[in-house]
Amino acid sequence: MLGRVPLIIAVMAQHAASLNNAWRRRGVYRDRRDMPPLDAVAAAIGADAPWAAPKWVWALCWRTHARLLPVLHARDGLTNTCVNLQVLWLKALGGDDAAYALLPRGARLLVAPPLRRLYPKLHHQNIRLRAKFLDDAVRGELRRCDDDVAVVALGAGLDSSFWRLRAAGCECAYFEVDSELVVAEKQRLIRNSPLLLQAVGQKAAGVSGSQDDRGAYRLLAGDLRDMDTVAGALSQEGLDATAPTLVLCECVLAYLEPAHGDAVIAWARQNFADVLVVCYDVVKTSQAFAKVMLANFRKRGAPLLGAAEDLEAVRRRFRAFETSDIRNMKRVYEALVAASPDELRRIAALEIFDDPDQFALIMSHYCLVLAGDGACAALVGSAG
């Protein structure tokens, strides 16, 4: 049986204000004890915090990296679909060996050790924090299991969680679903890496005519707008609906039309006897801020078709589950840092955190959902 599931959160970066060089000032927001610096969260997770650089530095690095991607992938022709490639490079820069193995052999030397140590800890350190927390949480729960557990990652992209968990000794049935384009790109990258190929087998990597040597890993091409077909494919690949199942949806539902997103949720609830759904997604909350945010995603070619209007709308989507816990990321952050207020106040006196209001605004536009049925229903309350 599954053990207690801790909150799985995505740790978001603090945004330092550049106006009037405010980011250079040290001090404490004494009236904002609920907003300690990111250093405290990083220390709790066991990783370094990102550099508190001015906003323009973060923006410049992001734009420069995006413009370099066509050059870095000139030979393989891969595209930065929904910033998948950009995140993959950042994971590799943060020390993810599986992500590094997915990069082009020549170009990846730019982020090889020890050269990667010369890069300032910005976006890649945020991603390293998020990945480490998620991996630790999932690994801890899988090790507590008496029964076989399956993990289903919907919209997995170029994520490398399976290899990281496997390297840590976690063996479980692991299913990834994404579009045909993304799956084909991922299979091609796996085939080019002996390290990754050995872990999943030639069949999972799409090697034509190979025997079924996939082991625990399954990589499926599927359209989440057609969950009946996806469900059938998962069943054919050996997904056991009677086993405890963890369904991961990380920024997936917001990209789907509401009706299609509802179908994904209904599939997770109706298909498994014991299921825990972990969903991290976008909430509009403030119309003014949401308008700018949605416009930015449209400009990148990834419109948020199904972003929820507010948390109440998210609660309605998951109300059919026996139990659910739905919070915006500001509340999740507050719950995490409230565990040791004295230590956080001490650290707050040493480190820069100049724009807590902006940080809180951004956090309020993302939410975490834990929803459970069957034997997993009790786990939702124990996670809070």
Task: Explain what the structure shows.
- This protein has 384 residues and is α/β, with parallel strands linked by helices.
- The protein has a single domain (19-383), classed as Vaccinia Virus protein VP39 (Rossmann fold).
- The chain has helices at 38-45, 55-72, 84-93, 97-102, 123-143, 161-167, 180-191, 194-200, 227-236, 258-271, 287-299, 311-317, 329-337, 341-348, 356-363, 377-383, and strands at 150-154, 173-178, 217-221, 245-250, 275-282, 323-328, 366-373.
- A seven-stranded mixed beta sheet has the order 3-2-1-4-5-7-6, sandwiched between helices.
- Helix 3 packs across helix 5 and helix 13 (329-337) crosses helix 15 (356-363).
- The longest helix has 21 residues, at 123-143.
- It is globular, with a radius of gyration of 21 Å.
**Average of pLDDT:** 78
Radius of gyration: 21 Å
Class from secondary-structure proportions? alpha/beta
Outline the biggest β-sheet.
7 strands, mixed
Q: How many individual β-strands? A: 7
> At the first level of CATH, what is the class?
Alpha Beta
Secondary-structure element series: HHHHHEHEHHEHEHEHHEHHHEH
- Tell me roughly what share of residues is in helical segments: 40-55%
> What's the multimeric state?
single chain
The percentage of residues in β strands lies in 5-15%
Straight-line N-to-C gap: 19 Å
Secondary structure layout plus pairing:
Blueprint: H1 38-45, H2 55-72, H3 84-93, H4 97-102, H5 123-143, E1 150-154, H6 161-167, E2 173-178, H7 180-191, H8 194-200, E3 217-221, H9 227-236, E4 245-250, H10 258-271, E5 275-282, H11 287-299, H12 311-317, E6 323-328, H13 329-337, H14 341-348, H15 356-363, E7 366-373, H16 377-383
Parallel strand pairs: 1-2, 1-4, 2-3, 4-5
Antiparallel strand pairs: 5-7, 6-7
Helix pairs in contact: 3-5, 13-15
